[in-house]
Structure formats: structure tokens, C-alpha cells
Amino acid sequence: MIDNILSVERKAKMILRYGIAFYFIYFGLINLWGALSSNGNILMGSIVMLLGLCIGSLILTHFKQPKLGAIGAGLAAVFFLIVVAILAFMEIRDGFSLQMIFLRVIKDLLLAIACMVLCGESLKEMVREKITKPFPVR
């Protein structure tokens, strides 16, 4: 029974990690595509694309190097919190409906919390590696 619960938890965290990583990769590529197709600011689109690709790839490196996974998840959480602040301010200024602003803020806050969960999972994996590492032979 406990093994089944732990198996479900492990699979859910893996799905969450892949989902957020692909979200960032998709976000970066769509942003670049939007900048290229509308003759917008290509430099800003490229910077956001590189940021999205870097954060997404750092989140996925958790399986090989948990420290980089923790850094990527922390950056993702900070990114979502910055997006909440900027977009909420811009949408309130432009007079969007409060229901839509509330839904966007809740969505981004939930994604930031999910990234914090992934950061904690990477930190837990780092501690587990330190504990199970064999002692050096003298």
C-alpha cells in the first residue's frame, strides 16, 4: 500500500517536472515566433526564448545533477512571481476585468508553488545523495 502511494507520488512529481519544463520551452519558442512574425522586438524575443530554454533545461537536469534542478526550479518560481507582479499591474492599469486578473494571478501563483515543490524535491535528492555517499577510504 505504501509502495503504491510512493510510486504515484514519484510519477506525479516527474509529470510535474516535465510539464513545467515543456511549459518554459514552449513559452520561449512562442515568444520568439511572435516577435519574428509581427516584426516586433526580436532582441527581447530572443532573450526571453533563451531564458525559457535555460530554465526548462535546468529543471530537466534534476535527474543527473539535483543542484542544477534546484537552481532551475528556483528560477522558475521567481520568474512566475515576477510575471504575477508585472502582468497584474499592467492589466489593472489597462482596465481588464477583475475576474480575469484574479484567474491569471491564481494560475501563476499555483505554478510558482509547484516550482517550489520541485525545488524542494531537488534539495531532498541532494541531501539523499550526501547521506548515501560512501565514506572515503583512508
Please summarize what this structure is:
This protein has 138 residues and is mainly alpha-helical.
Secondary structure: elements and pairs:
Blueprint: H1 2-37, H2 42-60, H3 66-94, H4 98-132
Helix pairs in contact: 1-2, 1-4, 2-3, 3-4
Give structural notes:
The protein is mainly alpha-helical and 138 residues long. It has one domain. Helix 2 packs across helix 3 and helix 3 packs antiparallel against helix 4. It starts with a helix and ends in a 6-residue tail after the last helix.
Instruction: Give me the number of helical elements.
Output: 4
Which regions are unreliable across 5 or more consecutive residues at pLDDT < 50?
none
Largest sheet: none
Q: Which class do the helix and strand fractions yield?
A: mainly alpha
Rg (CA only): 18 Å
| Oligomer kind | single chain
* Total number of beta strands: 0
Number of domains: 1
- Mean pLDDT across the residues is 88
End-to-end distance:
43 Å
Shape: globular
Percent of sequence in beta strands: under 5%
The percentage helix is: over 70%
Order of helices and strands: HHHH
